[in-house]
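RECORD TYPE: inverse folding
INPUT: structure tokens
STRUCTURE:
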């Protein structure tokens, strides 16, 4: 099957163009390093042709991990007889940066007899600012087709598809054989001359970006704005998601009220009420918060602010042995640790990449979010000010997230000072992408897909665990005495471990099951409380926790434990793969688990004093 390669510099719109040409929905964002692996899909217009999207690279001399992926696969692709064409994407708003890499790609294509087509993206930005450039002259100079497009709007894609069809029909002939022997030093100078000669005239785009940067990167205001944006992100988890959460909670209760009485068999009726509505239903209530969290992070990514936040954080992160480039994987880890670990490939320093791996599992990921929300809702009043912009629960959530992040930074700081390894670190260099309005449709779709993936991934585990928990908790007492059930007997065995935290065996069992996946904690508690309250209607789990007599000190100790403990098998597997060390993941599991337990005991005793 014939293949076409899509390659270009980071943040030039490759993934968006890939989605347009294939009809797929790869994740896109407005900062470098979002694509860290190779993606492929069939062309929508020519299904028998595969389009392969490579990670972005600034040149064919790789520095970072994702650049190395792109360069290695590109070298292999040039030797592949099935590869018939290479689409090289350039950002016309930053022409010189794109042209150096483009000239390298054209040179390699000429050496290997492959068609090279240059796709000039971001033309809509030039049109909006009434700026022009000489694409025809550039095409003649580099002796390769240069096609104007807007990957965002889809304008110009017809010409790209026509060029692809022509390349498939015609064999490659030597068009520009002289470039095959040109060294990189000459190509760099040529890129500068071509950008000056044919590129956009005027500095309107630079002035527009500079005005916004003068505010967001201001020496005094920049840090305050950053903290305000981060606080609003966590506050929005409650205020924006609250109506949807209330609606889901009410819907589950209404469905339970209708369905459960219709089931004639007592055991089946109890199972549906306790395990399905009580366990899985309690977990589903928190899915809107996953959507909101992913949506807000997507806005930061797509607008261009994410790279500014990384720059703001560079100096503080240096104190802990990290770099500003660590901020993006760490914030990605707030949604899920796994894409955060993959995103760490963009860090060029091996030492700082390893330290970022160590910090990411301590970032408060979306799997922790249902646990945090449940405990905060149980103990923190939902009072708000300024129309919901500021609230006690949002402040508590911000505090828990900040605590987790600080634990990650402290861990990297300790390791940095204790390490005897000496790496030759490269200077901190980060591209500042232009400010853009977010593309709302892909943003909403990505948030929806992330929420759906969260449910399908965790749902299988939660369903299995809740069925087992219900079975062990229901028999042999038929749900009349949870403490006397098989589950109660097992729970009393592990209860001494959690007694120093002020927790009874029910919470101990929920913690033990959550080592399969953190969010299982919510489903397990929902199932057990459902068995205990089988004569009542389906109640919100937070109310059941309040009624169970759990103290504030124990609630805080649970928050501390979940903030630190590494309780995700998938994260450990990816850590082993990316770091090349299974020992690293096992050590982190043991160290973080021990630290979580000891700090939870300390938190319980400290809060108990007050």
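DESIGNED SEQUENCE:
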């Amino acid at each position: 099957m014939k293949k076409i390669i899509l390659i270009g510099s980071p943040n030039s719109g490759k993934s968006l163009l890939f989605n347009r040409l294939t009809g797929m929905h790869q994740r896109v964002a407005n900062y470098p390093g979002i694509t860290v692996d190779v993606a492929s899909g069939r062309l929508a217009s020519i299904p028998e042709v595969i389009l392969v999207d490579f990670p972005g690279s600034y040149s064919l001399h790789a520095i970072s991990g994702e650049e190395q992926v792109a360069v290695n696969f590109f070298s292999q692709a040039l030797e592949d007889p099935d590869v018939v064409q290479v689409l090289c994407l350039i950002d016309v708003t930053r022409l010189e940066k794109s042209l150096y890499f483009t000239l390298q790609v054209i040179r390699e294509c000429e050496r290997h007899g492959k068609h090279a087509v240059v796709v000039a993206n971001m033309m809509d930005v030039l049109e909006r600012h009434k700026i022009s450039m000489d694409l025809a002259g550039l095409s003649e100079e580099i002796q390769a087709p240069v096609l104007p497009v807007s990957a965002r709007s889809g304008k110009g894609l017809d010409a790209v598809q026509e060029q692809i069809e022509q390349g498939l029909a015609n064999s490659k002939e030597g068009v520009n054989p002289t470039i095959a022997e040109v060294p990189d030093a000459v190509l760099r100078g040529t890129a500068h001359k071509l950008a000056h000669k044919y590129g956009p005239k005027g500095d309107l785009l630079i002035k527009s970006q500079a005005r916004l940067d003068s505010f967001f990167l201001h020496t005094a205001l920049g840090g305050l704005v950053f903290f305000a944006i981060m606080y609003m992100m966590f506050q929005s988890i409650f205020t924006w998601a609250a109506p949807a959460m209330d609606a889901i909670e009410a819907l589950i209760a209404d469905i339970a009220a209708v369905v459960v009485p219709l089931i004639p068999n007592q055991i089946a009726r109890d199972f549906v009420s306790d395990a399905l509505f009580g366990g899985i239903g309690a977990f589903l209530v928190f899915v809107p918060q996953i959507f909101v969290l992913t949506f807000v992070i997507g806005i930061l990514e797509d607008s261009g602010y994410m790279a500014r936040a990384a720059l703001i954080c560079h100096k503080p992160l240096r104190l802990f042995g990290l770099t500003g480039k660590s901020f993006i994987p760490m914030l990605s880890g707030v949604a899920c640790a796994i894409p955060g670990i993959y995103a760490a490939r963009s860090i060029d320093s091996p030492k700082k990449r390893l330290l970022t791996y160590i910090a990411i599992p301590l970032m408060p990921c979306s799997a922790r979010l249902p646990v945090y929300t449940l405990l905060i809702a149980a103990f923190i009043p939902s009072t708000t000010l300024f129309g919901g912009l500021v609230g006690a629960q949002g402040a508590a959530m911000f505090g828990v997230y900040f605590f987790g992040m600080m634990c990650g930074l402290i861990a990297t700081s300790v390791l940095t000072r204790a390490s005897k390894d000496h790496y030759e670190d490269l200077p901190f260099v980060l591209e500042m992408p232009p400010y853009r309005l977010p593309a709302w449709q892909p943003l909403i779709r990505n948030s929806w897909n992330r929420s759906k993936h969260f449910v399908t991934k965790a749902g299988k585990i939660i369903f299995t665990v809740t069925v087992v928990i219900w079975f062990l908790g229901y028999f042999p007492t038929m749900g009349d005495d949870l403490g006397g059930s098989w589950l109660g007997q097992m729970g009393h065995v592990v209860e001494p471990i959690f007694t120093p935290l002020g927790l009874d065996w029910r919470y101990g069992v929920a913690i033990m099951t959550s080592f399969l996946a953190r969010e299982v904690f919510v489903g397990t508690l929902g199932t057990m409380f459902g068995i205990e309250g089988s004569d009542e209607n389906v109640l919100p789990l937070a109310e059941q926790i309040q009624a169970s007599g759990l103290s504030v000190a124990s609630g805080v100790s649970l928050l501390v434990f979940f903030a630190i403990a590494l309780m995700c098998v998938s994260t450990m597997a990816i850590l082993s793969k990316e770091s090349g060390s299974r020992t690293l993941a096992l050590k982190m599991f043991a160290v973080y688990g021990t630290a979580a337990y000891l700090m939870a005991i300390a938190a319980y005793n400290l809060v108990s004093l007050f």
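NOTES: The domain at 2-202 is CATH 3.40.50.300 (Rossmann fold).
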